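Researcher: Before we compare anything, I want clean individual predictions. No alignment, no superposition, just each chain on its own. First chain goes here; please echo the sequence and then give the structure tokens.
Model: Echoing the first chain and its structure:
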Amino acid sequence: MMSAPSLQNLGFARPNICQTPKPKRCLRQSDTMDFNTPAEASHLQWPSAFVDSTMGERLELSEDGACSTRHSGVGRGTCFVGPLTMDKDLTYFEVEIVELEPNRSQTMALGFCHSLPTGNRLLSERASELGRGSYLVGYDLPKLHAHGLEATKIPTKQWRPLKELAVGDRVGLMANRVTRELTVFVNGLRKASVIAPGLSESQQVMPVELFGVVDVYGTVKSVRLRKRGRRPFLETAQTPVQVQPPATVTTSRMSPPSAHVSKNCVGRPTIAESARPNQSDDQAGKRAIGGADSKPVQQCVREGDCSETQGDGTHTSSVRRGLEATLDEVARPAKRLKLLTHPCGCTVHLICHTGTVVHVPRTDFLIGRNPQCANLRLDSPLVPNMVSRRHARIVSSDNGVEINDCKSLNGTWVNGAKADRQTLTQGDVVVIGNPSQGTSEFRFTVSLP
């Protein structure tokens, strides 16, 4: 018995399968915009450092004043941003959650005030105690505090920071000077809006210059001022080789060499004899396939199809059918998906909380913690083992793009609901791991062509 030689040894040319260079990426609006800064604030600017002359007594500034951290306790963590100037009657600022403390029953708040309080170390427990000319949105249950008093409750279905905020989230607050509307944004998405009461009946419009207020309170231990701007793309852990479809096989005019088939055939394919000794190779090749115009093919015999070579060089019909099926399998082009694709060729993109784009360049894309097999590797020292080694797969087919959970420990969540297998649509929010315990690094927004 002899093993099957390669296609090249049988006289076949090497399949025309080539590695194509990585296509040039065409920048689109979704690639260049910042997914964490709302469109309404795209023209607005704010300082890159907190005010260091006035802040809560338990706060410490770092990173050139951009990061504010509460070193002890729960409160007395008020810090200020500004002064902020109005542009088209709007002003805005945003911070990133750097560190959270578990097992706290309260959380942060953002706001504005007309002027800075006196003194360099504030002793007030919460920023809502700043008094007249201040507006704070947040805490738990979320409320609007205006001029030192509770003004409006915010529905928890719209926004509940105690339950929703995660490390890496970017929380922003916008003020409309004329309407006095305060709008909370989280990762660029509008969460809640409230109308603040005027300072007095004669002063219903906010001043042209305001200071931003951040109360580093409760579960939120550290925040960082963030600037808007595009982030670089996130490269996946493994980039698969791209094969140019369809893969074609070019056959030559040479016929396969002759080889004897043993009677003791086993499951491995072997090569069948195709010519008599007194015949030329060309004649043998023509007779083996069944005609002068036929192209030579790879001749394989599987278990149960073995037969002795006949005197005239012909073979059984079962062998011939096996040969034709084998060539058809080799030469058949890869199936093309009917799905729309991005200019880069991906059927789907995953948008990170930072605005970076994760390309999904293959129809079966594995997300997990194992660097040996995951196309996108996720892990965090803040929540180790939140992501399973093989956590979820994104599969593209003619029916659409779906995410399949690989029996992970902490589950895969789509739009707040745990999903074992679900078709993805534009704008869906996918969370890898438990949303209430994980970080924002594990949350992605779906972008379809």
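Researcher: Okay. Second chain, same rules.
Model: Second chain and its structure:
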Amino acid sequence: METPAKRARGKEAKSWRNPIRTQREEIEDLLAKNLRLCKEIPDMLPHVYQRVTTGSR
């Protein structure tokens, strides 16, 4: 039976039971975020370049 302390820990309790799977999920999430940012950066560049060259902040 799960104790309230274990239930309160939630993800910690889960990672204690299966640390490798949890770490893998976290890494996959970070890679997905990284890929999304890499796709968004070129869209942001013209706006940033315009702000830098015109000197407006």
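Researcher: What stands out in the second chain?
Model: The chain has a mean pLDDT of 75. Additionally, Helices lie at 4-9, 11-17, 19-54.
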